[in-house]
Design a protein that fits this description.
This protein has 499 residues and is an alpha+beta fold. Helices cover 50% and strands 17% of the residues. The strands form 4 sheets. Strands 1-2-5-4-3-6 form a 6-stranded antiparallel β-barrel. A 3-stranded antiparallel sheet has the order 10-7-13. The N and C termini lie far apart (197 Å). The mean pLDDT is 84.
Length: 499
């Protein structure tokens, strides 16, 4: 319809332009008017198209905006949960965070493999064969931590197979898509390795120690008023840490202290001291005294914290681990972001280890003031938090100590062999010396006999010599007398006095 109107208007314009040109207008003016009309009509048509398209785009933008808001609302509901300012445990982000924390540092895991003996090694068969492109060099020569699977009852009552006992550290000697051959490196359970009695699970990294490990398995909440310490201790001693498994006597103080360290984990000082007092008759150790590093004091901020506290650190997971010795997070997904520090607002609560709570002096003489002098806080309960064990470090240290023990043992054996040879040489020299001494003693006896003979002979010769000297003296005297008589008689003219 619009094009028809434009066409009629164009025909009328041409008609009147021709009439005007015949009377008063120059033909140039008529042509210019017609061209101007054509350009104007074209501009109006283009503008109408642009307006139509713009209107359609604006309506589409409104629909997209509404859809975006609906999608964002659904995303917030999925990530943060219903009506939560921050993500809760039931939100996607909350569950993701919980999963990340649970799997932090876990590495790869191969579960529920059947095991067969092959000489001194063991063949671990995967429940499902790996793809061929993942079975060539993917596991060759790597160290793995083997665990025996066993039944575990979940809080809901479901029974599942899960790793329950550490067998040892093994190395992959050979691999195939359906299996790997395991060579022992360090064995903690030689019986299970010698005669496999269940399926095994292989961990690329040793599972990390957790304070809530047994609580989660047993479905217990230590903050629940119905939490029974006695029942929990009995489960620890029966199901998880029987005395024979840890190599201690059931009635030893060390075993009771070990069970205490797990049973009281996360409890307040009042809770564990009240339980000890109520069960004093059956106790071996009269008290439970954790180290200051394992006792944490609860503080409530009366106002915003005076300082910002460093919680993030740059480092290498392979050499530094998940956290530095100061407790700063190395793993990137554990960082709080930004400058890597946190502050506390009024009425927020924190747990501070007893050393920092009470203050201490460093080895360089620096005095660390008590926490209550550094911040405006109110002191609350004291809690025991078991210091987690670094199993990878303990195993590595044990292996190093074993290697050093082997080296020292070899050195001692070599020294013993050298000493044995030295002792044999000494014994031979002693025997030879005794033989020489016996010969010398015999020669000494002979010499003494010869000496006696010589002495007798000497005495005899001396006697004869004395007799001869006396005889000579007598003869000299007689000669002198005879000589004197001859002189008197005139028969001797020589008056020499020489004898």
């Amino acid at each position: 319809m619009s094009y028809a109107i434009i066409g009629i208007a164009f025909l009328l314009l041409v008609f009147f332009a021709v009439v005007a040109a015949r009377n008063t207008w120059h033909w140039v003016n008529s042509v210019f008017l017609i061209l101007t009309f054509i350009v104007g009509v074209g501009a109006l048509v283009s503008m109408s198209k642009v307006y139509k398209e713009r209107t359609a785009d604006m309506k589409a933008a409104e629909r997209t905006k509404d859809q975006k808001e609906a999608n964002q609302s659904a995303a917030r509901l999925a990530v943060f949960g219903p009506d939560n300012i921050i993500y809760g445990p039931e939100s996607l982000r909350g569950r993701t965070e919980e999963l990340n924390l649970a799997l932090a540092g876990r590495g790869r895991v191969w579960q529920h493999g059947q095991v067969e003996a092959k000489g001194n090694n063991r063949i671990f068969k995967f429940p499902a064969a790996r793809p061929a492109d993942q079975a060539v060099g993917a596991m060759q020569d790597i160290l793995l931590h083997a665990f025996m699977d066993g039944p575990v009852t979940l809080p809901g009552g479901e029974v599942v197979d899960a790793p329950v006992r550490y067998i040892g550290t093994v190395s992959v000697a050979n691999e195939a898509p359906a299996s790997v051959e395991l060579e022992p490196v360090f064995l903690a359970d030689e019986t299970e390795f010698t005669k496999p009695s269940a399926t095994w699970t292989l961990f690329e990294k040793m599972p990390a120690d957790r304070n809530d490990a047994f609580h989660r398995v047993e479905g217990m909440n230590i903050k629940d008023e119905a939490f029974d310490i006695t029942d929990y201790r009995n489960r620890l001693m029966t199901n998880y840490m029987p005395a024979g498994l840890v190599g201690l006597a059931a009635d030893s103080p060390g075993y009771e202290e070990l069970i205490d360290s797990y049973a009281f984990d996360g409890l307040s000082r009042g809770q564990w001291e009240n339980w000890i007092e109520a069960n004093r008759d059956s106790r071996i150790n009269p008290r439970f005294e954790p180290s200051p590093e394992e006792v944490f004091v609860e503080y409530k901020f009366n106002k915003k914290s005076n300082s910002a506290y460093q919680v993030d650190a740059d480092g290498n997971l392979e050499t530094d681990g998940l956290f530095t010795p100061l407790g700063h997070a190395v793993r990137i997904d554990l960082h709080v972001g930004g400058p890597g520090t946190i502050t506390f607002e009024k009425d927020q609560t924190v747990l501070v280890d007893q050393l920092n709570a009470d203050g201490y002096q460093r080895s360089d003489g620096t005095v660390v003031e008590p926490f209550a002098q550094r911040e405006d806080v109110t002191r609350g309960n004291e809690f025991y938090v078991r210091q987690k064990r670094d199993y990878p470090y303990l195993l590595s240290d044990l292996k190093q100590q074993t290697d050093r023990f082997d080296e020292v043992s070899k050195q001692i054996k070599n020294n013993n062999q050298i000493k044995a040879e030295f002792n044999n040489d000494t014994e031979a020299q002693i025997t030879e010396r005794m033989t020489l001494i016996e010969g010398l003693e015999k020669d000494k006896g002979n010499l003494q006999n010869d000496l006696k003979v010589i002495m007798v002979s000497r005495e005899k010769v001396e006697g004869e010599w004395t007799a001869l000297e006396q005889r000579i003296a007598t003869l000299k005297k007689q000669v002198a007398e005879q000589h004197a008589e001859l002189q008197k008689a005139g028969k001797v003219t020589n008056t020499s006095t020489k004898n």
